[in-house]
Here is the input.
Amino acid sequence: MKKKIRVMAIDNNIDVCEMLEAVIKSDPDLEWVGYAEDGVLALEAISNLNPDVIVLDIIMPRLNGVAFLEQLTTMYPGEKPKVIMLSAVAQQDIIKSLSNLGVDYYLLKPIDATTLINRIKQATGLDSVQTYRSQGPALRESGKDIEAHVAKLLFELRMPTYFKGYSYLKDAICMAVEDSHVYAPTTVDLYERIAERHKTTPPVVEAAIRYTIGKTWKRGDTEQLNKLFGAFSDLNDKRVPTNSLFITRAAEEIKVNSLY
Here is the structure.
């Protein structure tokens, strides 16, 4: 009999833990081993629960996600459980530090059940595309296929294609999708790579993307924008999402719907 992937959750929101339990138990390849309400309790329970994968919230009482990871690394200097971090925000400095602490995937809330199951299986080496396929078509590994999906998403948002920032933003999202981890590269890295490709400078890339996102926020498809950013921004209060948030959410949407 094939060994199941043992999954543990760490979140102080009991409703979230119960939701995660239901998701994990819905897949025959996964085994729910329990949860802890904060990092301190998790460190006490982890040796008994022996999880293969930990689904971890970043904001918790007593010991937050980052502090927990630091202590987990000390406890397991060699092979340690795979970690999937959940967060409601996309802050590039935090994402980069989490990468250095060994986080395997960084997912923005609200979490799609299919995405979570696929990331758990990918983190442990299972072929999630074969074992848990969504209704959407799978992306092939061609860069042109990824670009087509990104272009379709931006078209649905009614982003003006004649702005220079459109090309820069499309490149940025493609790069984030192609990245081997869920978290996107830092925007600084993206700006430098895009600037080199288009023979310009990073500040020009950043400003052009910012301008294009701003125009899309004012003139784009309200329903589609709310669908993609509703949990993170409010169209009514005119606060435009940051470049980083826009790129991260767009890349995650492509990955969710295409199982890339």
Observations:
- The chain has two domains: 5-124, 142-258.
- The first strand starts at residue 5 and ends at 10.
- Residues 128-142, 180-185 have pLDDT under 50 and may be disordered.
- Residues 202-219 form the longest helix (18 residues).
